């Protein structure tokens, strides 16, 4: 794989576009924001004095996060952390954070997805952790994960979990089709044709028109770069050759009936189809293993292979999902918050606790994936797939990929247009072009300067 030129980090001024800070922030998702005060231009908040006990709050949608905090609390009496559960980000969690920030409150730490970091930056919602020494920890994290929180003027979150991708498959179905796991997408298509011939309801995989995340991941793997900065202007480039190649590929797969478009992965219909042998595989993130283990009767029948590639272009893997532990703008103890979240995401104790109690996604630490993930898996046919597949995959990412301040509306536009593939026969290539127009307008609606690349 030939990596592209490393992206130029984005400054917060560029995020705002010609210094439109307050006006642009006020348009963010139609919700309240902290206002014009930028905590990162204020004086540093000193660490607490030696005899003072610091109380931190952490808002997240992770289950049993308090148990992780309890591991820390037992060994660090000076810094005590309390976890509060909130709904998943776009299910109400982000709105809750923004409302709290606007009122001058909120937690010290919040779970913020990697793709949402630019939107929170636009709203003056995050503390620049570089001011508190976060860059000293860079070598402890995967390069791709760190790139998603790094901007020229700071570090706006600590990677908490990521989602490098692989190819999960049912061994018996591939054997019936007479094939090994595919190494390229072209081989994947040939395998999809073979699986279709094993039964009229049988498919290799699904292609979800109602979820643009997989498509974005495939484009990311091919080497696409949808959003970048040129001076003080955002450049949207979703009709590049790499993205169009991916769209044309799946246009053909849908037109030839090679993929199931009736339901996305991990839906009730998908589980039923997998259990009955009608769906053979899923190209998904590392965190998909826990979900696949819910396939009835599937133990010992699945394995994992490296993600198939786009041949001579792009990267060895891609990613779906991933989140950060971000210190929010109104945090009273940012230095202590940074101490806790770096422990949680790089120490053996923290990583093991996150896996045990929270079922956290892939650890972004470079030197430890968690004791549980170092062991062979009985469910996945005795395979030590985390070390065999996902350790290499985490190092084969498109580090030039950046999200933007309109990520959520971008996904909504793509999904709305993709649905027209089924309802009206719209080509995916045309759907991407139409979505790009809407996305450009979303930038303008936020008061941001923007243009298309072509």
Distance between the termini: 26 Å
Tell me the number of strands.
Answer: 13
Regarding quaternary structure, how should these chains be classified?
A: single chain
Low-confidence regions: 1-8, 17-36
Walk me through the topology.
Layout: H1 12-16, H2 21-25, E1 54-60, H3 65-75, E2 79-85, H4 93-102, E3 109-113, H5 117-122, H6 143-147, E4 150-151, E5 154-155, E6 158-161, E7 165-170, H7 171-176, H8 185-196, H9 213-222, E8 227-230, E9 233-236, H10 241-255, H11 268-275, E10 281-285, H12 288-292, E11 302-306, E12 323-327, H13 334-346, H14 348-358, H15 385-394, H16 407-424, H17 428-445, E13 450-452
Parallel strand pairs: 1-2, 1-3, 9-13
Antiparallel strand pairs: 3-12, 4-5, 6-12, 7-10, 7-11, 8-9
Care to describe what's here?
This protein is of the alpha/beta class. The chain folds into two domains: 12-163 and 319-374, D-Maltodextrin-Binding Protein, domain 2; 165-318 and 401-452, Periplasmic binding protein-like II (D-Maltodextrin-Binding Protein, domain 2, 3-Layer(aba) Sandwich), CATH 3.40.190.10. Helix content is 37%, strand content 13%. The chain is built from 17 helices and 13 strands. The chain has a five-stranded mixed sheet with strand order 2-1-3-12-6. A hairpin with a 2-residue loop joins strand 4 (150-151) and strand 5 (154-155). Helix 16 packs antiparallel against helix 17 (428-445). The longest helix has 18 residues, at 407-424. The two termini are 26 Å apart. 51% of the residues are buried.
């Amino acid at each position: 794989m030939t990596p592209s030129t490393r992206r130029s980090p984005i400054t917060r001024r560029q995020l705002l576009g010609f210094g439109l800070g307050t006006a642009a922030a006020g348009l963010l998702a139609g919700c309240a924001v902290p206002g014009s005060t930028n905590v990162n231009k204020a004086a540093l908040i000193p660490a607490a004095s030696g005899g003072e006990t610091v109380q931190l709050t952490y808002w997240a949608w992770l289950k049993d996060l308090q148990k992780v905090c309890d591991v820390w609390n037992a060994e660090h009496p000076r810094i005590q952390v309390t976890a509060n559960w909130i709904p998943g980000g776009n299910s109400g969690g982000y709105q809750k954070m923004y409302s709290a920030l606007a009122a001058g409150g909120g937690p010290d730490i919040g779970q913020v997805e990697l793709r949402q970091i630019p939107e929170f930056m636009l709203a003056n919602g995050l503390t620049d952790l570089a001011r508190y020494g976060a860059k000293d920890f860079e070598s402890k994290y995967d390069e791709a994960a760190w790139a998603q929180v790094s901007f020229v003027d700071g570090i706006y979150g600590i990677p908490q979990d990521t989602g490098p991708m692989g190819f999960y498959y049912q061994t018996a179905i591939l054997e019936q089709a007479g094939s090994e796991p595919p190494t390229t997408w072209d081989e994947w298509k040939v395998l999809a044709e073979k699986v279709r011939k094993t039964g009229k309801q049988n498919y290799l995989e699904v292609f979800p028109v109602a979820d643009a995340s997989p498509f974005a991941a495939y484009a990311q793997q091919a080497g696409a770069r949808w959003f970048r900065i040129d001076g003080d202007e955002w450049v949207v480039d979703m009709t590049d050759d790499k993205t169009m190649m991916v769209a044309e590929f799946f246009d053909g797969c849908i037109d030839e009936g090679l993929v199931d478009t009736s339901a996305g992965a991990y839906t009730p219909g998908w589980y039923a189809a997998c259990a009955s042998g009608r769906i053979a595989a899923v190209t998904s993130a590392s965190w998909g293993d826990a979900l696949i283990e819910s396939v009835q009767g599937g133990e010992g029948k699945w394995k994992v292979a490296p993600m198939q590639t786009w041949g001579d272009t792009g990267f060895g893997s891609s990613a779906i999902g991933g989140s950060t532990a971000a210190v929010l703008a109104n945090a009273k103890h940012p230095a202590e918050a940074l101490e806790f979240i770096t422990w949680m995401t790089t120490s053996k104790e923290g990583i093991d606790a996150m896996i045990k109690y929270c079922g956290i996604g892939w650890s972004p630490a470079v030197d430890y994936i968690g004791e549980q993930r170092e062991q062979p898996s009985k469910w996945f046919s005795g395979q030590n797939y985390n070390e065999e597949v996902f350790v290499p995959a985490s190092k084969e990412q498109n580090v030039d990929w950046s999200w933007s301040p309109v990520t959520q509306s971008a996904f909504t536009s793509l999904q709305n247009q993709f649905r027209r593939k089924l309802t009206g026969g719209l080509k995916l290539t045309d759907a991407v072009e139409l979505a790009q127009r809407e996305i450009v307008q979303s930038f303008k609606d936020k008061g941001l300067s923007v243009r298309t690349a072509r």
